[in-house]
Amino acid sequence: MKRAVFTLSLDFELAWGTLDRGRDAFYRPLCRAEREQAITRLLDLLAKHNIAATWAIVGALFEDGADDLLHAPDLIDEIQRCPVAQEIGSHTFTHPVMTMVTREQAHRQFSLAVESAAKAGVQPRTIIFPRNQIAHLDLARDYGFTCYRTPEPRWYCGAGERDAVSRLGHLADVLAATTPRTVEPTIDEFGMMAIPGSMLYTPSFGMRRHIPASLRVTRARRGLMEAIRNRKVFHLWFHPTDIVVNMNEMLAGLDEIFALVAKYREAGELEVQPMVNLRSALLKEMEASSVSTCVGAGALASAGVLS
Ligand SMILES: [Zn+2]
């Protein structure tokens, strides 16, 4: 790539993300704080530093309904009114683990997600799969999705996001402030862009509330420097729910990270791109290089650039 890129993706789900876990008494107050404070304060920070993020939104949140932790058209409106235009992507319609659903259910998830977003005038292009469990990509493409996030490369081999090995491995990374992996987007066999995450801005609830935000900032700084050195992407991601415990400290940490991003951008060393823009930039570069080298024409054809 010509220049390093900072990408930020946010999984916005309120209570949908934890419905299958039970433990309402634990999660609902977190979602309440997310609804009442975190979204607005996060948007203020994004506007302050002129950062366009990708919001992967659970489709049901676009709908009106009595439970305001399962429905939030007002908050989506707020995101759309942010002075710095934000990308509105999808996080499916009701947040099932997509590797566990039938093809018919996958159809329904994608079609309802697209229909609900259309009510807010949006055609989502980015899909972020619940728990990063990727499946039914061919269907996603048929519903107009063009990019998705893949799990961050890691040295430990836990089976999923939540098993003990993954949690301990992730905790070790955070405590040692290891440099997160910088990543490169690729075009897959469906012509969709796959972009791995680099770093989760570690949630502040549970035991992890004892981890100072400064360790998260140190890791992010290292990731940004590495991206600039190697002209790669530093892809930060989290759920707004992740910042509600110690909210002031967690937001101050993000403020520091975004200020660094803005500083490097002003110096011409870094670009800020939501996921969907990253795909168009990548295709343009592939097109330019295929003209000079005739390499990658197959991938470009399947991505609809050459036909
Ligand atoms: Zn989720």
What is the general shape?
Answer: globular
- Say which CATH homologous superfamily is assigned: Glycoside hydrolase/deacetylase
Beginning-to-end CA distance, first to last residue = 24 Å
Structural class: alpha/beta
E-strand count:
10
Oligomer, anyone? single chain
Strand content: 5-15%
Instruction: Quickly count the domains.
Output: 1
The CATH class label is Alpha Beta
Stretches where pLDDT is under 50 for at least 5 consecutive residues are none
Named at the architecture level, the CATH assignment is Alpha-Beta Barrel
List keywords for this structure.
single chain, 307 residues, alpha/beta, 6-stranded parallel β-sheet, 4-stranded mixed β-sheet, globular, binds zinc ion
What does this structure look like?
The mean pLDDT is 90. With 307 residues, the protein is α/β, with parallel strands linked by helices. The two termini are 24 Å apart. Helix 1 (24-48) packs parallel to helix 7 (247-266) and helix 6 (213-230) runs parallel beside helix 7. The chain has helices spanning 24-48, 73-80, 103-118, 137-142, 164-175, 213-230, 247-266, 275-293, 297-302, and strands at residues 4-12, 54-57, 87-90, 126-127, 147-150, 186-187, 193-196, 199-200, 233-238, 270-272. Strand 2, helix 2 and strand 3 form a beta-alpha-beta unit. Helix content is 42%, strand content 13%. It contains 9 helices and 10 strands. The longest helix has 25 residues, at 24-48. It is globular, with a radius of gyration of 19 Å. The strands form 2 sheets. Strands 1, 2, 3, 8, 9 and 10 form a 6-stranded parallel sheet that branches. Strands 4-5-7-6 form a 4-stranded mixed sheet, with helices on one face. The chain has a single domain (4-275), classed as TIM Barrel. The structure holds zinc ion (ZN). Residues 11, 13, 17, 91, 95, 130 line the site of zinc ion (ZN).
